[in-house]
Fold each of these.
Amino acid sequence: MSCYYKLLKEKFPTKSALITEMINLDAICHLPKGTEHFLSDLHGEYQAFDYLLRNGSGSIRKKIQECFPDKSAEDMESLCQYIYYPVEKIEQKQEMLTKVEVIEELRDYLPDLLQLVHYIGGKYTRSKVRKKFPKDYAYIMDELLMEEQPDKNKKPYYQAIISKVTELGQLDDLFIAFSVLIQKLSIDHLHVVGDIFDRGPYPDLIIDRLREFDKIDIQWGNHDITWIGAVSGSYICMINVIRIAARYNSIDLIEDRYGINLRSLIDYSQRYFEEEEVFVPILDDEDISQSDKILLNKLQQATALLQFKLEHQLIKRRPQFNMEASNLFSKIDREAKTIKIGENSYPLQSFPYEMINWERPDQLTDEEAKILQGLMYRFQNSQKLNDQIDFLIEKGAIYSISNNHLLFHGCMPMHENGDFKSMIFNGKVYSGRALLEYFQEEVLKSHKRKDSHEDFETDLFWYLWCGEVSSLFGKNRMTTFERYYIADKKCHEEIKNPYYQLRSREDICLRILREFGLDKSAHIVNGHTPVKEKVGETPIKANGRMIIIDGGLAKGYQKKTGIAGYTLISNSYGLELVAHKPFSSVQDVLQGKGDIIFIKRLVEEVSQRTLVKETDNGKALLQEISDLNYLYQNFDHY
């Protein structure tokens, strides 16, 4: 401890420096807490996600209404558009108006932007607001924001700044910089509760956008974990993400944007497989050529076969995973072309009998093994993919606790009586919080090594994807094999963990919260299972202890949910859940059709505004103040 205070004294070498820092930190503690946004299940839907960030999930419009109560609805709408999409809005105006008229309109709206920055940024320190300025315009923005209503003596000074900026042709860029600043100020901390990846085409753009945030945490989803597994050396996770990409027509992500050559796998699929109806790719309003559909069809078949071979190998290798129910090759009758599941036999459809060595059904051919080795080399040497997965590792976790919220993507594996399900690893029993922490330790260990394809830690990625006691999956088993090869839908059923029924009970939620050291005032925030709002399902359960924020951001789920996702917003006034309408296009937003708010629900309202000192960050600041005060009182001793 003595060394700690000596280092602290080096940073603050005088008593006056200590006093200044203590005053600064204490003042910060008495500011209102920053606004936190919670989103989940982004599923590669970049444009919809980007729009939510640009409008603060509807909060910017609300701030404009509060800040400018006398503005007309038309003027407010125009100001919203300028803030959400400043580049596109200016381009739209340039097509409609003369250059002089565009400049005049921007100059007219600029004071509104300055006033709005003051209004939204009022709960932050000036230093924090300044840090969000773009470097090129930091000085000018700081000067313009010095006074919301400059006095008479300074008015010519401010007018001179604007005139010179206009004269130099920089008014557009300055206007855009203020609009982006407002966007940034509307979200202080972003929480992403899993599944950045999946059926949507642009998870890479989402990750690039997430990297712009200073304060962000991510709870890995089941789809995220397979991509982490693929880069960490898991052949089966790698082939699974390629199969899903073929199923949803997002191969461009792998080949073009991650730069991973799939040619050997595509050639293999074209030589050995014929088009099959059950492997028709699922397209969300996309129009692709017939030849591309056939290519995706065959590629999906090839990756499915390789996945099932690898899965059967893993099941034998890891008996402790208890995945024997998915060991289906042994239940196939080649002569009758049927498979026995339980007491019944079912005909198989589209099954590639000739691609299997029936003496060892899970054995890869030399060609298949070589293809997998080449693909793994390319996955592990894609700079962009590895940079993005490193970001998910750095900012991510199986679960997080933040400001009295327990965040995890899927479920807490439970028995029907509410007890936590357990697993045994190396002779030790893990359940509840300890099990989730064990999963996380093994993920980090495997990702750090990346050099073994069949060790326990690498195999565990697959268990997290589809294992019965995985907190990311939450079902008894995954029936991908049956969905492809058995027409009878009775075989497709995946039984959900009892958690999904039990989480509606407050006593169960309180039990989970206690397991993580939280009290009855805390909340659990989940994603993973879309809430079917249109049939009356509610996202708020267990007397407000449970909040489910997967409402269907991905287009494919919106027919079931009736909405397009949720944002949970935690600000100094309490908790609010916002349901969104589907995002259509930027052009619709610029035509005034962009209001995305569907329903707002007040989850919890506080009697007094929550201050920074009451947050996790505030508690750390209070401890820092205590340490500084101790050093001040004992300054001559160090």
Amino acid sequence: MCGIVGAVGSRNITPVLVEGLKRLEYRGYDSCGVAVLQDAQLRRSRSTERVSELDALTKADGINSTLGIAHTRWATHGAPAVHNAHPHFSHGTGKDAAKAKPGHIALVHNGIIENHEALRAELQAKGYEFLSQTDTEVISHLVDHLYDGDLFAAVKAATLRLTGAYAIAVFCSDEPQRVVGARQGSPLILGVGGVDASERFLASDAMALAGVTDQIVYLEEGDVVDLQPGRHWIENRAQGATEHQRVDAADRPVRTVTVHSGAVELGPYRHYMQKEIFEQPRAIADTLEGVLAITPDLFGDKALEVFGQIDRVLILACGTSYYSGSAAKYWLESIAKIPTQVEVASEYRYRDSVPDARTLVVTITQSGETADTLAALKHAQSLGMKHTLTICNVATSAMVRECELAYVTRAGVEIGVASTKAFTTQLAGLFLLTLTLAKLRGHLSPEQEAEHLTDMRHLPVALQSVLALEPQIIAWAELFARKDNALFLGRGLHYPIALEGALKLKEISYIHAEAYPAGELKHGPLALVTSEMPVVVVAPHDTLLEKLKSNMQEVRARGGELYVCADADTHIQAEPGLHVIRLPEHYGALSPILHTVPLQLLAYHTACAKGTDVDKPRNLAKSVTVE
């Protein structure tokens, strides 16, 4: 969701900016733009098409400079339109803005400024002209109004006036070798060096700088950074402080961060989502690599101490990650015997809850930058729940830095907006957490530990067998593509998997899909069942199978069409109105990981049959960095 790239150096950096935006396309966007300082004038190209179109525009416009900023926008304030696209320039014409020049300040911004309406009114009264509906344009005018020959000072002063979340990159026509950045609530990093040691970069994601530099400084909340050729410095405004203080270099060290540019190559696959579905055996194997025994130190050096001080678990997550947490609740309570609560992160901090200091707060996030989950974590900490752990796919993310403990999954870069391999590796990490807590609490025997470890090591092979079912799922997808609605059913541990399957279908095919516990059919959803409503059933061979078969009969009796993902030994036979795909084996407690894959493939191939933009579904973003 929204991407920033900025650079200052000695070469033409326009290609670097555009290539950085291409690497951020996976985050989701609906417009994009580049601005540079060229011949002492601000120049820009903006587009509501893809970055490839922007690339062509910059070349046609002759955009060429040693300094510039670029952005991909996911619309919040104002429709997706060129006039709302970033970068924004300042425009001042009134008496108090007499010193302002059209195009004096150029700025890009991620986040949401909550007090933008009040600031807009104030700046309009001072003679500033607004050409967009965005909250971002307010910042560009505010920086211009506060500018008195020192851009760094103006940005620092502006941040004291902003309420909300922001990551910004700014430059000024009067200072041809300077870019200034600032962050509060949205991620921003500094890149050092490039083709030569003098280059400096800003980006919202290290992926944007892949192949450019691997020397990264992670900026913290309240940081303002000054970039000039061959040097940079940082000042910070601590929470509630009214001024900024210079940061010692040791407090913001330069780290070597390897981001493989090849990770975003599509290869032989039609879409990134398809590639990532088929990468799951390797992703699971990598995530479990080195797990030779169930030990607390899998989660960090302090894990043994922390796990000994908790009596319950609180899981905070959004979207797909929420569903992985919902599945983990079943594991944690049935295997580890520990009370577990799962909360939608975007709701948790806005209600009264009952905190318990002996709670392990577990956050789940693919990016580690999800704004709602980070805010929920901080809220839980403010309530006195200091023991925190994250299951996250990005080792250098804000979430990993904020939590006491972490299990970093190794799914690799996930480009498709609809999460696949991140979800299954989250489940693997959560199962390890379950076994660890079970062992420490005396609920896991050595024999059970060995059996679970054997099953986990076999997961990649089992997943390959499930992926081999793709041709049968394609046949289902051809039928689904002609439908407008679908119902997903599961019971117990597999109900969250049904929820995830419905989410995948609606995300990328735009077919309305709902999921229910199968036992709830007769309490309302059965009214929707007709021959035009396909009903997908997750049917593992577990203790609830016979109950589930009864629920399936309820659908058949109303003329519903069933599509069943069944284990090999469930004895569910295909017949008219009852379509069956058999998974090769039943996998016990780990069954949800296997049953997820057919639902991912169903959503993917249905979307392909409908011709939707699979990797970049409308209105959605990959990394949700605003509330």
Amino acid sequence: MSARASALLDALDEQQREVATHFSTPVIVLAGAGTGKTRAMTHRIAYGIATEVFPPNQVLALTFTAKAAGEMRSRLRTLGVPAVQARTFHSAALRQLRFFWDRFAEGDFPRIIENKAGILGSVLQSLGIESSRELNRDVASEIEFAAATLLGVEDYAVKAASRDLPGQLGVDDMVRIFEAYSEAKTRGRLMDFDDVLLVLDGVLAEYPAISAEIREQYRHFVVDEFQDVSPLQYDLLSRWLGPRDNLCVVGDPAQTIYSFAGADSSLLGSLGASLPTSTTIQLVHNYRSSKAIVATANNLLRHTSRTALTLRTDNPEGRAPAMVEYPTDEAEAAGVVKSIAAEVRAGRRPRNIAVLFRTNGQSPAYEQALATAGIPYVLRGGERFFARKEVKEAVLMLKAARATSSGRPLPEVVAEVLISLGYSTSPPAAGASRQKWESLKALVDLAETHQAGTELPVPLETFLADLADRAEHQFAPDIEGVTLASFHAAKGLEWDSVHLVGLSEGLLPISYAQTPRAISEERRLFYVALTRAGKELSLSWSLSRHESKQRPRKASRFLTELGRVEESIGQAPRAATSVPMNRCRSCGKVLVSQIDRALSRCASCPADVDLKILDRLRRWRARVGLEQGLPPYLVLTDTSLSAIAEIRPRDMTTLAKVPGLGATKLERYGSGLLSLLAD
């Protein structure tokens, strides 16, 4: 073994080393959060090249986000194998489709649509359907789901009957939209990213010569985040592989969070049966988080599945996660930012702090609070870094400076060029000028990273090539600011300090997650968010959106699954409390849906409805409806009446738990219902 190959293995633990050195059979890696899976994958590739198991140009490493692919390419460059292709499924497919286009199609390559919303807005209007930003987005998600799961229009129509469709649309509406959207793309010679995978998959099936050429080029595959593979991506991967099995996949079923988009974690579970000679390796040693955070994550993990991995770590114990309750959303944002300000004063860099939330709609309150406090922030999912005006100008100026930059350290050259755009060693106080400065500072920091580890000046040309690669794959450099991101957008990232906010019922789990399967996905999403934290973790929620008399929110049911954590209310600590899990009074199962929890029983367990009370309630509803000129079902539904007759509430608090009795109906009918029940 060469000294270089030996050095690659010295950087790995026993399980990671097994991943890096096992080439005799396909490898299935089950890797828990923070267990160094990217290190294991990149060292496997580098070790395979160093020991001449495969040449670098025959490897294709696949992942799901531009950030992850960029990180993988960066690590491979550091390991001395820059020629390896590391791409997202869509990027790899698009590259191949462009290359072979003239071999199977006529005319210019279609224009790629990055966002379906604009075209879908026109499509909906042409069909007489009122469009909106939210509806366009949700319809786009349905189209993506159908493509990812290989459903044609007819198959989708059957499947859609059991799905929650966007807005008030029916199955027939969705079918019409599918067909009209397809026609609009054909007329405009357009192709979306779903089409890229679908078309290439079809080409490889129909053109054996093209398939053979690609299989000759790529002989060894590494696939990250395999639990998020869709049937379409799996089919395409199978065509890339052909009869060979030179495959290493890495995944964790407990981190499956894209089922709504067509991801199918069962493909990971069944892969061993498809590849009977495969070897399964588990990575469970967490290098990211403190023992307290790992223990908290493990407590939640036990509720995800019976086969979930149990993490372990040798990191310090650390501080137990804090649980904080606030009276309002505004108070929560102010309290969280106050804590962040204290962390920054204590020396923690803002880029090492994150605020994570379930929905993007929760972001503005934290953007405002951070701006008011003068703390820089970065919104993931916002404007792309390389699309910013100051970044475009910076790249142009750096290109112009190529002829005069030789012989000097790269950071010095970059900083000098960017001074004319507003860069300085000291940042502006706040506002737009501060955000512009942060973009320029990120470029200087990236130049320092390139220069680190070598005494010879790094050529500006090399730096510009890296910027071009990053721009192509949207792999932005780190910016000095607190990260604001949704739980989904935080996947694959990590910070020293993480604040999980808005952890109340209705937001986590999200209100429309009613089935056991949907609740399980919400729990896995929470697990992903928890495990982004390295040293400190805080969990918070508020009792209401703003000061009002509405029913107070409740803390997320998932918090009861974390074990004992430190708790405080606002800034005033109080003793830790534990909210009991809701279980069926008949069979003892944990209840997940709102209705089941209100009735304290599973839908499949027998009801205990007082028929006399139910009859009186129906007569009361008819009378009230007549007095108010409303049909009876608009007063209260049959479901609500049955629930009241079963629960038989004696006070407003218990009555408020009845499904369908919101704050308005509770105020309007509550007293009358309680009087009727008391009689």
Amino acid sequence: MQATHLDPTTMKVSASKRIQHLLVVARHEPANVLAVLLLTFFAYLIVVPVLSIAMDSFTVQSGDSMHTHSAEGEFTGYYLTRTLTSRMSEFLLWEPLRNTLSIACVTVLVAVLLGVTLAWLVNRTDMAGRKWFATALIVPFMLPSWTFALAWTTIFKNRTVGGQPGWLEVLGISTPDWVAYGFFPMVVILVIHYTPLVILIVGNALRRFDSQLEDCARVLGAPRRTIAFSIILPLMRPALLSSALLIFADCIGEFAIPYILGLPVKFDTLSTSLYRSLDSRQNGVAAVIAIVIMTIGMITLLVDMRMMKEARRFVTVGGKGHMDRCRALGSMRIPAAAFSMAFVLIGVILPLVTLFLSTVMVLPGRFTADNFTLDYWIGENLDTLAMHSGILLTRDFWDAAWNTIMIVGSASVVSGILGLLVGYSVLRCTIPWIGQCLRQITFMPYLVPGIAFAAAFLSLFAVSHGPVPALYGLPILLIIALIAEQMPFASRSGISAMTQLGKEPEEAARIAGANWFSRISRIVVPIQAAPLATGILLPFISGIKGVSLFIILAIPATDVLTTYSLRLIDYNYDQAANAVVLMIALVAWLGTILIQRISGTGLAQGLES
């Protein structure tokens, strides 16, 4: 056969025609234009703040010219040296880093052990009440993490820190510092908060596990230990590693619990060290610490993404063997239920009851009839220095509530809509690399812990840049920061929803003469109404409980409920602060129930998806 030789001129013409064809298709497909606009918008909203704070770590900041011997805005290695190698580096970085890593590692170990045990009891045994526990055990993950911290201080607070004493102190039981503050209570609270995450992830894997594998091993005479460690555990490894890495990444950026239980005794983590640096106007040092936090978070979650790809090797395909087979516990059914109930008691009932009782007591720890009052809820003319009425009659509370609804609500609605548009653009865009870039950029905030992301926004928007004015102190800054932070969840929700919607309804409308806006508003949005509602409510619940962004970016004029409660804690108005936290928990719970009604799934199933 004779070889065919193509003329280079012909090849160039052919390539040129292909490019022209792609451009024509791109120009006539509105999804391409939308994808480009969204990519530009999110590049500025997400990538630019991260680059800005990275530049701050190498740029002389305002007021530091004397220390750096350079003019403001010039390049410097001063902040890197001060944070990493100077005499202050132990206080600024290395001790907080050790504290953070030790808390994260111990939390991961205990939460995984406890979560795997409870997941196995709920999903693979006939434990008494297991269907009820499937939901009840998840509730601690839905409560704000610092709910437990406030309940802990209400009970265990000692005289090391001023203000009202804890209940045990009032009863004559002196609690040592290591119990009241620092490492131990932080780990206990984080374990309570994150164990449900392990239950969700590992429990889902256990339900999908093919029981035929166990049956075959049992028929061949394998003992239970061999089945557990040679079959079940290896196949559960992706779920175990995924839950461990997610918990580790969250612990790195956790702020509220160290703020409440560590800051008063100078037990710093990376997040509180970052907060201290910003509070003392050491912006360059704060930038270096933020980069360290970002780096750890990104490495951890990138490893998790790699593990999710590896998980495909562990997929098992079974037919009828994939069924709900429960191991009979016999006489251990009741003790197993008691163990699970103990977790619900410690993780849900005890914290909420403690916080509520603290809000109706004049003096903490005195359980006498004359000590109970509703003054901190609806009282007037209170004998306190800066708070003269109960929270429900206090203007500051309602201002914070309005700010919360306005800021978090606006951000949630915009996030849900943008998430759906991102999903539409990614799946309809005819230029593959633009769709992939949009997918990755909108996921990027998930790789950055919240406290570091807030510092990045502060770095970019604290001063004006070209046509963009300084936004610090304005509600719009909190709104756009929340939009950016929630985009990983909103965009994934939109992509997932749009995956299930084919092009046929739009094509039919196009043939009928409907323009693009009509197709989106009258076809896509109505069909995706339930996912859109869920995509709005999930960011709302997350924003209601959020602390990291608000503690950095909010000022008293833009107080939301979370920062308002933390300010009450700083003023030692513990009863009022606990009342505000209960209101936040109530709103979060009601939002969860609403999502459950809209999506038609139970709490546990909804959180898994």
